Amino acid sequence: MSHGTPRRRPAPAPLLLALPLAALLHAGCDAGASADAAASAEAEADQEPSREYVGARSPADAEALPFSGAVWVGSTLYLSGQLGLDNGQVPETAEAEAANVLDNVKGLLESAGLTMDDLVSVQVFASDVGDYQAFNSVYKTYFTTEYPARAFIGAGTLLFGARFEVQGVASRQ
């Protein structure tokens, strides 16, 4: 095999095929109830998770900003990137902008019935990685439990001249 050819892994055996047999062998269950339970499990596995959109935009906003603020898929909330501008202007300090962007993330989470502690993953895009300490000095004040997994990414120029854009994934606990 050459270095450029990816190694193929065998496909895992489908687990759903084993469900009816496992259900029938389960102690204390009759065959009819077990078959019904297996059929129900198969039906659930075939269903697509529902989607619910958070932070709905007006038609005018949707034209200019073609994305949703956040989207629920099952018990997971995916947050779009948030900026920390003051009335469309970049705040004077990195700390002020960090507080604004984190307030926006917090507000979006709260509108979905969650808190900052429900974040499981965060990506911070920074126009200057030199602002790492300034961002962290504010970021750590927004959590009361363990911090979510995080990446701090030097991204170059961000929209509207922002220093930071924060994107996240949260989950209902």
Describe the protein in words.
- The chain has 173 residues and is an alpha+beta fold.
- The protein has two domains: 13-47, no CATH class; 51-171, 60s Ribosomal Protein L30, Chain: A.
- Helices cover 32% and strands 21% of the residues.
- The protein has five helices and six strands, in the order ααβαββαβαββ.
- It has helices at residues 18-25, 31-46, 59-64, 94-111, 132-139, and strands spanning 51-54, 70-73, 76-82, 119-126, 149-154, 164-171.
- The chain has a six-stranded mixed sheet with strand order 1-2-3-6-4-5, covered by helices on one side.
- A hairpin with a 2-residue loop joins strand 2 and strand 3 (76-82).
- Helix 1 packs antiparallel against helix 2 (31-46) and helix 4 crosses helix 5.
- The chain starts with 17 loop residues before the first helix and ends with a strand.
- The model is unreliable at 4-31 (pLDDT under 50).
